[in-house]
């Protein structure tokens, strides 16, 4: 099982955690409500987890341009 992180806005890969015995609490997943989990976390048939987060570039863009929050995809 691997946990793959990518930016929800630009799609860039943020990294992978390749560990067999990681707990949801260690990753902070337990702090998400059901809607957030459904929106941010996906699983495949092999047990891999795909997490949508935000990269630094998109975070900075959103801080400078709050109206970008209405967009699903940002291009830098």
Characterise this structure.
The protein has 76 residues and is of the alpha+beta class. It contains 3 helices and 4 strands; from the N terminus they run ββααββα. A 4-stranded mixed beta sheet has the order 2-1-4-3. Strand 1 (3-7) and strand 2 form a beta hairpin. The termini are far apart.
What is the topological layout?
Blueprint: E1 3-7, E2 13-17, H1 24-27, H2 34-40, E3 41-43, E4 49-53, H3 56-64
Parallel strand pairs: 1-4
Antiparallel strand pairs: 1-2, 3-4
Strand content: 15-25%
Strand order of the largest sheet: 2-1-4-3
- Using only CA atoms, what is the Rg? 14 Å
Helix-residue proportion:
25-40%
Count of helical stretches: 3
Q: Outline the low-pLDDT stretches.
A: none
Mean pLDDT: 85
Class by helix and strand content? Answer: alpha+beta
Please give the number of β-strands: 4
Q: Characterize the main sheet.
A: 4 strands, mixed
Order of helices and strands: EEHHEEH
Distance linking N and C termini: 32 Å
- Characterize the overall form: elongated
Oligomer: single chain
């Amino acid at each position: 099982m691997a946990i793959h992180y990518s930016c929800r806005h630009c799609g860039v890969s943020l990294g992978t955690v390749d560990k067999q015995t990681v707990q949801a609490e260690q990753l902070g997943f337990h702090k998400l409500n059901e809607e957030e989990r459904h929106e941010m976390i996906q699983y495949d048939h092999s047990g891999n987890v795909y997490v949508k987060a935000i990269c630094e570039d998109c975070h900075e863009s959103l801080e400078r341009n709050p109206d970008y929050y209405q967009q699903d995809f940002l291009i830098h």
